[in-house]
Amino acid sequence: MLNKILVQNYILIDKLELEFSNKLNIITGETGSGKSILIGAIDVVFGAKTTKECIKTGCDRAYIELSLFLNQPINELLEENGIENYGNELIISREITNSGSRSRVNGTLVNQDFIKVLRDKFIDIHSQHQTYSFMQPKYHINLLDSYAKATCANLFEEYSSLYSDYVELKQKLDNAKNANTLSENQIEFLKFQIDEIESANIQSIDEDVKLENELAVLDNAEKLKELTGSVAWTISNDDDSILNALSLLKMNLSKASRMDSNLENSEAELINATEILKDLASSLRDYSQSLDNDTERLNEIQERLFNLDKLKRKYGSSLENVLKTLEKLQEEYSSVENYESNIEELEQKLSSITSNLTKLAKEISEKRKMYSEVLSSLIVEKLEKLELPKVQFKIDVKDTSLNKYGMDDVEFLISTNVSEPLKPLAKVASGGEISRVMLALKTIFAQHDDIDTVIFDEIDTGISGKTSQKVAEEISELSENCQIIMITHQAIIASKADKHIYVKKVQGDSTQVGIYILNESDKLKALAELASGEVTDKSIEFAKTLVH
User: Fold this and answer.
1) For the purposes of burial, counting CB atoms within 10 Å of the CB of 17, is it exposed (0-12), middle (13-18) or buried (19 or more)?
2) Is the dihedral of CA 499, 503, 508, 509 positive or negative?
3) Nearest Cα to Cα of residue 410 among 53, 148, 159
4) Residue 136 DSSP class
5) Which stretch of DSSP H or E encloses residue 266?
6) Which residues are registered as beta bridge partners of 396?
7) Whole-structure pTM over 0.85, yes or no?
8) Which of 177, 212, 363, 470 is most buried by its number of CB atoms within 10 A?
9) Angle (nearest 5°) at CA 455 between 453 and 459
10) C-alpha triplet 241, 247, 248: angle, nearest 5°
11) Taking the CB of residue 383, how many other CB atoms lie within 10 A of it?
12) How far apart are CA 534 and CA 548, in angstroms?
C-alpha cells in the first residue's frame, strides 16, 4: 500500500510531501481546485502516459516518488530484474523532462512493462474514463475473465498461444491460395527469372571480386613481367647481384665469428637472409615467366563480369543478394507448382488446430458461465446493500464465432425496476446506478485479487441522501481490508475518513495547488462546506453529527 508521496514541479505543485493512512484517505476541495492532480501524479508513477506539459512552468523537470509498504514479498521479481531489495519498502519514481521520462524502482532504471507488472500487483485506479470503458460491452469479457483468472489463467494462456498459431496458419493458407492467382504469363516470367540466374552458375558470393583482381593482373601483364624479372635479376643473376655481395659479406663474417663466438648468431642470420633472397629470386623468376598476354582469358573475364553485373542490376546490388533473390523466386515457383498439395496440407493442419481450439474454447465457455453466475450473484448482493433493493443483474454469456477470446460474447445486463426486464447496462443505468455498479465491481475485485490500494476518482457521481450513507459504509468497510484513496463531494462519505486531505488553489505571484492534512477542527469545517456550501453554525453542527 502507498506510504508516502513526494511531488516536485508537477503541474501546479511546487513541492509536496504527504503520508497516507493505510485505511481510508479522503480528498476534498472546491471544483477546479486540483484534486485530481494528486491522483494523476500517482497514476503517472504507475505508468500513465504523460508529456513535458506536466512540468511546472519555469522548471526543467518534474519528479514524483512513491514509497510503498509491501504486504506481500516480491523478492524473486526484484532479483530477476536486478533490483536491490529494500525489505518491506518499495520506492517507485518517475522523472519527466523536456526530452522524455525515466522510471526507477529502488533506484534502478526500469521499463514501462515492469511498471505495469507492479501496477497490476499493487494498485487499482478507477477514473471517469475507466467507468466509460466498463460500460462498453467489448470490455465485459475482460472483466469476467479477470474474476476467473485465479483458476483459469493457464487455460486462457493455452488458448491464446494456440489462437496465435491458428491465425498464422490461416494466413499461410490464404497466401497459398492467392499464389494460384498468378497468370500463365506471370508464371512463365517467374520461370525465366529463375533460369536466368541459375544458368549464370555463380561460383561464390565474391566471384566478381576475384575476377576483377585477375583482370587487373592481365591488364598489366607486360609491366608486371618487366618489374618482377628485373628484381629477380638484381638479386641473383648479375655479377653485381645482391647474392654475390652477400657471399662476400658471409665470408668476412665467418672469419670474424671464428675469432669471436659471440658473432655466430649474426653469421647464422646472414646465412638465413641469403637463403630467403635465393627463394625470393626463384619465385619472382617463375612468376615473371608465367605471365603472358592471354587475350583470350582477358576477353573471357570481361564477358563474365559483364554478365554478372547485368544480374546484379536486375536482381540485387551484390552476388549475395542475387542468390537470395533466386531462393525467393524458387520458393514462389515451388508454391505455385505444388499448389494443390500445399493447400491440402495446410487445410489438414488448420482443421486439426481448429478442432483443438474449439475444444479449449468450449472448456473456457463452461468456466465463464459458471463464474458469470457467481459474479452476478456477488454484484446483486453488493447493489442491494447500496440501495438498489429490487435490482437484477446478469452476466450474459452467448455463443459466437471463434475469436481471440474463445467462442463467447459477454455482456452485463441490469434491471433496477421490478417492472422492467434485463437490458444492457450501458443503455438503462443512470449515473448514480452506474457509480454503484462500478463500486460493487471494484469492491469484489479488490477483495478477490488481494489488491493493496484502490483509488476512486469521484465514484460517488449521481448519488445522494440515504444512498450516500450506504456507499460511505461500503467504502469504510472495504478500507478495513485494503487502502482506499478517494476524491468525493459527499460530506457523508468524507466523514468516514481516517485521513482527510484538503486541496485548495492558492493565487499569488503564480497559481499553485496547496494540499493540506486536516485536523479535527478543520475537518469539521470541510465537512460543513461540503454539506451546505458554506461554513455556518448550523453546517458545523451537522458535520459533528456525521463524525460522531
Assistant:
1) exposed
2) positive
3) 148
4) S
5) helix 264-290
6) 411
7) no
8) 470
9) 140
10) 100
11) 22
12) 21
- How far, in Å, CA of 453 to CA of 485, rounded? 8
Which strands, in side-by-side order, build the sheet including 511-517? 123-126, 453-457, 483-487, 24-29, 499-507, 511-517
In 3D space, the residue among 507, 502, 499 whose CA is nearest the CA of residue 528 turns out to be 502
Q: What is the DSSP letter of 256?
A: H
How many Cα neighbours within 13 Å face the side chain of 71? Answer: 14
Listed as own residue / partner, the contacts of 204-212 with beta carbons closer than 8 Å and 24 or more positions apart are 204/319, 205/318, 205/319, 205/320, 205/323, 206/319, 207/308, 207/319, 208/305, 208/308, 208/309, 208/312, 208/319, 211/301, 211/304, 211/305, 211/308, 212/305
Least confident of 77-91, 160-174, 425-439, 480-494: 425-439
Query: In DSSP terms, which residues pair with 387 in a beta bridge?
Result: none
Rounded-to-integer distance, Cα 42 and Cα 426, Å: 29
3-state secondary structure 482-522: CEEEEECCCHHHHCCCCEEEEEEEEECCCEEEEEEECCHHH
What are the pLDDT digits (tens) for 395-433? 999 999 999 999 999 999 998 888 888 988 878 767 778
Q: What angle do CA 530, 477, 391 make, to 5 degrees?
A: 85
Tens digit of pLDDT for each residue in 333-355?
877 766 767 788 889 999 999 99
- The rounded distance, in Å, linking the Cα atoms of 436 and 386 is 7
3-state secondary structure labels for all residues of 428-461: HCCHHHHHHHHHHHHHHHHHHHCCCEEEEECCCC
CB 197 within 8 A of CB 311: yes
Mean pLDDT of 464-491: 88
Q: Is 187 exposed, middle or buried (0-12, 13-18, 19+ CB in 10 A)?
A: middle
State pLDDT tens for residues 112-160: 999 999 998 888 888 766 776 677 888 899 889 988 988 898 999 999 9
User: Measured between alpha carbons, how far apart are the two ends of the chain, in Å?
Assistant: 28
CA 458, CA 89: separation in Å to the nearest integer? 29
Strands (DSSP E) found in 22-97: 24-29, 61-69, 89-97
Which residue in the block uniquely carries the three cell numbers 543478394? 321
Coil, strand or helix at 89:
strand
> Residue 484: which of 440, 459, 453 has the closest Cα?
453
Show the cell assigned to 55: 512540468
State whether residue 47 is helix, strand or coil: coil
| Placement of cell 504527504 in the chain | 18
Which candidate, 384, 386, 380, places its Cα nearest to that of 474?
A: 386
